[in-house]
C-alpha cells in the first residue's frame, strides 16, 4: 500500500510542473532550436545573425560599409554605416526600440511596414538570440548626430540606454562575447568567416566588407568589394576549372515584387555546383527558387535545340540531369516575406518564388542563347554528350547491379564478409593490397568486421564518367559490397555497413590510394560521408621495443616522447621499427593497434564546406595541371611526414 502511494506521488502531474520560460530563457534552455547546434556551426551562426542585420541595411541601400573584428578574448564586433537601430520609446514595451529588439523574441522592423522591403531576418530573433547566448553584449548606435550605448548580459539589459556624446557618422555597432556555458568550444575560424563574408559581398554588389583579425599581431585585414554581382561570383566558383564557353550568363529581373538574379557557366567537369540564396541567406537545401531555375533552364535548352533541329523525335529530349552536368550556377531572390524551413533557413518554401525565377531565367536564357550562338552551340553539344553518357551509364548499371546482386545474393569473391547482418554493428575495412588484406582477414573479429582488399590504385573518378567507372573491377566490387547501388539508384538505407574504414599504407602510394577512394565517396557516395559512416584508419607509424616492453607511436612527436620516457625509466637497447605498410604487421599487431575498437584510432571524414571541398578535389584530381602545380607550390613548405 505504501509503495502504491509513493508511486502515485511520483507520477503526480499538476500546475506546478508546468514551467513558464520568460523573456529569452527559452533560447538559453534550448539553443539548438534557434541556431541549429551549440558546436562550431552554431557559434558562427551568432556572427551570421548580426552580419545579416547589417547586410539588410545594405540591401535596401542604406549601408555601404560593414566591418567585422575578431578580438583575442573571443569578443566579436560588427559595425555598419546604416541608419542605426531606432532608440525612441516603443509604444508596446515602453522601452527603447533598441532594447526591445535585443531582448525580445520576434521583435523587429521586418514583420511589416516599409523599413525593410526585403530582409534575411524572418522571425525577428537574430540579434536577441545572440544576446541571450552571450555573457556580454554592447550596442552602440549613432543616429541624428548622437551616440547611444547600452550593455546586456544573457538576454537582459545590464544598463539603461544612455547618450555618450556626439557623432558625425551613423550606424550600429554590436559587440558580443559568446557564453562558454552554452558553447563548449569558442574558436572563431577565420577561414570560415572569410568564406561566408566573401560570398555575401558577391551577393550584395557595391558593399564593402572588411574582416580584421586582431588575434594575431600584425595581420592585415581582408576587404571584399565586388561590383559584378553573381557573374563575378560564378567566375570565382569556376576559377581553376576549364570553362566550356566564353561568356557567363547573367539575368536580373523582377516579377510580382520579387527581385531575381541568376548566373551560370559550364566547365569541362562532370560535377554540378548549384548555389541558391534568398535575401542573401544561403539555402543549402534549395527550395522553390532553385526549382524554378531548373525548370526554366531545362525547358529553354530543349526548346532551343528543337527550334534549331538538334532534337529529332519527341522522345529524345534532354533531361534535367543532362543539362546540369558540368554546370556551375547561382540563383538569388529578394523577397518581402521569405518562408524558410527552420531558423537556420536551409530551404525556401515560397511558391511564388518558383514562378518569378522561372519567368526571369527563361526570358534571360532565350536572349543569351540567341545573342551568343557560339556559346549556345557549345552548351547544346555538351548537354547531348551528357545525355549519351547517361544512357551508357544506365546500361552499365543495369548490367552490373542486377537485382540479385543488390540484395547481397552475389557478393564479390574477394570480400571476407562478417557474420552480423545489422548495419549498425557491422564495419567494412577497405584495405590496400593483397598482403595487407591477408593480415587483416586473420586479424579481424569475423563477427562484425568485413575486409575488402583493393588491388593497386583504383580509377580516378574525377576524370571518368559512370559508364567507364563501372568497368573497373575494384570499383564494381566496392559498389556491390556496399549494397547501396550508385548514381540514380543509390539508396543509403541499403548500406550494409555503418562504419566504412579506409586502411592504406603510410607512404606516398597509400596516400594516393586514400585520396582516390575519398574522391570516389565524395563524388558518388556523399550521403555516406554526410551520415558520418566513412572513416580513415590511423595505424601506428612506429613500434618501439625495449626488452619485452612494446609501445606504439602514431605520430613523430609521440615517438619522441615515448623514446625519451623509456630512456629515463628503463635501461638496455631499444629497437624502433617504422611501419610503411599494414602487411608488415602480423595479425596480432594489426588487431591490437588498428582494428580493436578498444585501442584503435579512427578519423571520421566530414565535409565542413562542400564548395571548398569540391574545388580542392578538382585541383588535386582534375585534368588541369597548372592549378595543381600552383597548389603544390603554395603549400609545399607546410607538408609534414612526406615519404621520400
TrEMBL record:
Q: Which residues bind Mg(2+) 1?
A: 432, 505
A Pfam family name for this chain? HATPase_c
> According to its UniProt record, which cofactors does this protein need?
Mg(2+); Mn(2+); Ca(2+)
EC number(s) recorded for this UniProt protein:
5.6.2.2
Q: How is the cofactor bound?
A: Binds two Mg(2+) per subunit. The magnesium ions form salt bridges with both the protein and the DNA. Can also accept other divalent metal cations, such as Mn(2+) or Ca(2+).
Q: Choose any GO biological process term that the UniProt entry carries and state it.
A: DNA-templated DNA replication
Q: Where is this site: Interaction with DNA?
A: 457, 460
Concerning InterPro entries, the annotation shows:
DNA_gyrase_B_C, GyrB, HATPase_C_sf, HATPase_dom, Ribosomal_Su5_D2-typ_SF, Ribsml_uS5_D2-typ_fold_subgr, Topo_IIA, Topo_IIA-like_dom_sf
Binding-site positions, Mg(2+) 2: 505, 507
Give the SUPFAM superfamilies listed for this entry: ATPase domain of HSP90 chaperone/DNA topoisomerase II/histidine kinase, Ribosomal protein S5 domain 2-like, Type II DNA topoisomerase
The remark listed among the other comments is: Few gyrases are as efficient as E.coli at forming negative supercoils. Not all organisms have 2 type II topoisomerases; in organisms with a single type II topoisomerase this enzyme also has to decatenate newly replicated chromosomes.
User: What is the recorded name of this protein?
Assistant: DNA gyrase subunit B
In its UniProt entry, the species of origin is given as Candidatus Wildermuthbacteria bacterium RIFCSPLOWO2_01_FULL_48_16
What gene codes for this chain? gyrB
